[in-house]
Amino acid sequence: MTKWNYKGIKAKDLPKGAVIPEGGTAADYETGGWRTKHPVLDKEKCINCLFCYAFCPDSSVIVENGKVVGFDLKHCKGCGICAFECPKDAINMEDE
Amino acid sequence: MVATLKELAAKEDKLSPGHRLCAGCGASVVARMILNASTLPVVVASATGCMEVSTTIFPYTSWRSSFIHNAFENSGATMSGVEAAYRALKRKGKMKDEFNFVAFGGDGGTFDIGLQSLSGAFERGHRMLYVCYDNEAYMNTGIQRSGATPMGAWTTTSEVGKKQAGKIQHRKDLTGIMAAHGGYVAQASPSNWRDLVKKAEKAFAFDGPSFINVLAPCPRGWRFPSEQTIEFARLAVETCYWPLFEVEGGKYKINVKPKTKKPVTEWLKPQGRFKHLFKDVNADKLDELQKFVDDQWDRLLALESACRLD
After folding, report:
1. How far apart are the CA of B67 and the nearest CA of chain A, in angstroms?
2. In whole numbers, what is the pLDDT of chain A averaged over residues?
């Protein structure tokens, strides 16, 4: 969550010039609802090459200590690039 | 030393998710890779375009950095002003922090509308990186032809019919135009991420203006399934339609030379915007496109070997 509290903000309290006082507030916005398919990771097959991380347009591949641990389904739009680019077919796109 | 994916993934992305770019958009892959290559905080400007409208919808912003949008034609001028102001503040001792300055523009905001302000920024020698994410048409307004649209491509303003088979003219060589300005100039593709990250790192380290032209395949405008974005970027490199090269101190260097140069039809055929070119009546168009690609590649090879001589 962001620190800047814009929920229910009154027009007179808005910053001048439509300035957004904090970076990265879009992370609060859910784009996962656009999806018709979601990625599922097969950890047995995954070699942690991180190509899925590199090619994800929505920064939705969660990497911890150099290993793919899952997907950020709040933001994943289900484009399928990760599954298509995976050299080991460790990612499958499954219906919602 | 180029950062590894493991190193890059250990840092928080400088472009947050939650932006409203289409599923499978090539532009956000490009922006993520470029920004994550920066070890310093960044200051970003963007020309009007897909990236600007979908990353900064009030009260949301995807930029985990300072961001400024001014207009369509002047992201080069806006960013040079920001950089000049920063230098003045630093000289007066009012600011100590280090930043990298990055301007993004689509092909509309770079090839056509913003070319003058980019040219000016280069001539004045500001220490900034300008990135063109080239999706080969005005995608934000619904696929209109631009100076970057290849010959033969369908767009809503280069229609396909009895009199015309898509865009009549060839695309312009913007990377060549920028190389003529001096500075550090490169052409890259998200499919070759290591090459792209290396070029971004080089540009950030360069003491002067730099420009990287990056192909950003567009599933909506090019008419292909969203999961194949990176594959189309890769095919563009393998067919030599989109050669990866850099120009440093006026010297050309080709970074990737495909072992076997694939025919350009392999890149064209799966794209819906070139569908009409595969009818018999348009066979000459395919030959012309192949010749365009061959000539461009031969010219690059010649430029590279000419630079080696001295």
Report:
1. 8
2. 93
